[in-house]
Structures are given as structure tokens and as C-alpha cells.
Write a structure and sequence with these properties.
Blueprint: H1 26-39, H2 42-49, H3 54-58, H4 63-84, E1 100-110, E2 113-122, H5 142-151, H6 156-165, H7 174-182, H8 184-192, E3 199-214, E4 217-229, E5 235-243, H9 248-260, E6 265-271, H10 277-284, E7 289-292, H11 294-302, H12 310-321, H13 326-340, H14 345-353, H15 355-358, H16 366-372, H17 376-389, H18 398-414, H19 422-432
Parallel strand pairs: 3-6, 6-7
Antiparallel strand pairs: 1-2, 3-4, 4-5
Amino acid sequence: MANEMGAPARMQCVDRKPKRRGRPPKRLADGVGEQLAGLLPEEALQDALRGLDAQEITGPGGLITRLAGRVIEAALGGELSEHLGYPPGQAPPGGAPNVRHGSTSKTLATDLGDVEIRTPRDRDASFQPRLVRKRQTRLAGLDDKILALYAGGLSVREIEAQLGELYGIGGVGRDTISRVTDAVLADVQAWRSRPLDEIYAIVYLDALVVKVREDRSVRNRACYLAIGVTLEGEREVLGIWWRDTEGAKFWLAVLNDLHQRGVRDVLICCVDGLEGFPEAIEAVFPEAWVQTCVVHQVRAGMRYVSYRDRKQVAAALRPVYTAANADDAWAALERFDEQWGAQYPMITKAWSERWEYIIPFLSLPAALRRAVYTTNSIENLNRQIRKAIKTRGSFPDEQAATKLIYLAIVKAERSWQHAYHWPAAIRALKIHFADRIPD
């Protein structure tokens, strides 16, 4: 099953989620501000800026990039002084043989653009700088910019052009960009095998189709996704899995993978109307409530309705899924059958056959119904993923698709908020699943 799920190659693992960016801590910002004021008094800074236009200040090779280069050079000089044990202009202590030995020019790619620096050297080449390591050509932060552009759906060629045109960063070739994005595979492997919570209140399951080139042809591949809502109301994507097509048999393998990673119980599973899906869920989590997405159910029936009848049929179905309880819903379905059953018998038949998987949400209060009657949560994620991959057309292989989908997921998770009205929802879950929810 590991091969079917397409585990990426083994690489060094790093944290799954990048930390959110924001303002620096106040104490740190104040400290930097005080040091800057000491180095560049306000009057001296104004004198330096006098007569310069915007391009000469912020453009490539402008004042800001040159100032950044001077700061980096000063920091490297301080590192060398610490390494040698004496400051510039003084004799080596005790006649030590290792002394300063000139410098080497280097172009460093940074968030500000290309910065020219001179890296100091020592005679015996034992100096190992920390701020800018030997053979390092990118300053910390540029990799994040590359990954952000990649997550936005830009190709390697487009990223190279963007770095040059918008940020004035040259010398970052396609091979370098590919190495930066390939490093994401280490995150993906750690993320796909990480331990999960023992209990999830709600799990949404769905798949989307991605075009991947295989054997000199483009094929549709099913990308399986799962979103879990914890007992604290936090949402997280549980994994990515690949298969040729979507089917209940492989969903069983996905659910077994979740179980092996620590999931012991799922209270409610929200799924579409795929044949055999409920049985696959019950085989792994026998106590889970399986809730068929009502929106999918309505859409499936509306395919058979002529255009002139769509509004009336949709209005007649609405009392079924907005009923106060299961009995009222069944009565509403009978009324629908009396009105439209002769013309559209397949709708009543489809609802009746899946009735036990349609009505579970009707026993829940309004605060919780909204969260489980539809798979909108994972549909919204799919929409954001499609936005990132639509410009690609197709991917050269499954790993390339996995990289971009993972970055799109990380980007989407940053904007996710706490589940809607969760305190009321967890109280309702406690009533229905008291013995399965720990105190």
C-alpha cells in the first residue's frame, strides 16, 4: 500500500507548518531600532538620502542594498574577529600563525535584491562564517519567497523571471529554484506520516482529479484528501494519497492508513454519494456516523430534471433536508413523491436508498447541522488547490503535483479559523457521544 500511496523519497525532515509571519516582537524591534539610531543618526541619514531618487534608494544596487551589504560585511568581520581572537589592526595574540588574509567577492541573493559583499578570509582557511556560509549564495528568507511564488502556481521559469523583474534578484537559476522546491518533499514525508489525534469529531473525505504525465501521455489521477476537526474545533488536513481513480476500495486503504497513524475513533464522517463509501468507513470505524453530503445528493437528483422544472423541484426537496427531525423529513419526501414522483421517480428512489446516511444530521442541533450536512469544508480546500494547479495544465510526475498541493494546503491552513460556534457544537456531540468523548 505504501507504493500505491506514492510516498516521496526520503529527505531531511523539518517542521510541517511554517511559522506565521508578522511584526517582530516589540522588545526585539525596540533593540534593533536603538542600534540603528546609534549607527545612523537622523541627521546623517537625511544627508545620505539628499538628492537621491526612489530608484537610487530602493532599486537594484541602490542605497538600501548597499547598506545591507555593509551590514553583512560588518557582521562577517565580527565573526572573523571572534574566530581569530583579536580585532582588526592589532597583532595576533601570542604570535598566532593564523591571521586575516584578504577577502572574496560574492553576490548574495536576498529579499532586497542582489547584494555585493566581500567575505573575509583567514590564512589557514579554518574560518567558517555562520551568517553567510561558504558557497552560500542566498540569504535566509529568499527560499520562503520562492516557495510562496511556487505555491501561487508559478512555474520554475516564471519564478526565475519574477525574481529578476520584480525583486531585482539575478543569479537564481532554474536548478536552484528546483532544489528549493524539492526540499519541500522532506516536509511532505514527515507530514504524511505524522501521528494523528486519537479522536476526531468530524472528518471530511473527498478526492479531486489532477492531470499527471505518465508514459508519454497525460492521465487523470485521483488525489485523495481528508480534513479532520479535533475535539477543540481546530481543522487540519490529515494527508494526501494518490490512485488512478476514486473508489471505495482505495478509500478503505486511506482509512486504514489513518487508523495506523493513531486515529482510534471518528464521531461523524462527511462524504459524497460514492457507492460503497459508507461500508468502507464502517469497516474501519464501525461506530462512526456516516453523513452523506446533502448538497451532493440534491445535485445528483437535479441532473435528471428539465430546466423549466428545476426551481419547483428544488423548492419541493428543501423541506426534506430542513425538517425538524427524521420523521418530518420522511413525510416531506413522501409529499415530494406525490408531486413529482411520476415525472422524476429516480430522485425519490435515490433518496430512499441512501436514507440512513442522509438523516443523521437531523438529530443534531442547528449549530452542528451546519458543520456536517455538507462537505463544503473540503470543497473549499479543493477550490484553493485547483486555483494553484490550474495554470500548470499537467504535472511531469506525481511528486511535482504533491509538492504544489502540499504548499497550497499549508497556505490554506494559515487562513483557517476555529470551527463555527464550536462550544455549542461540542456540547451537542457530548450529548450524543458521551461515552466516546473524554472529559
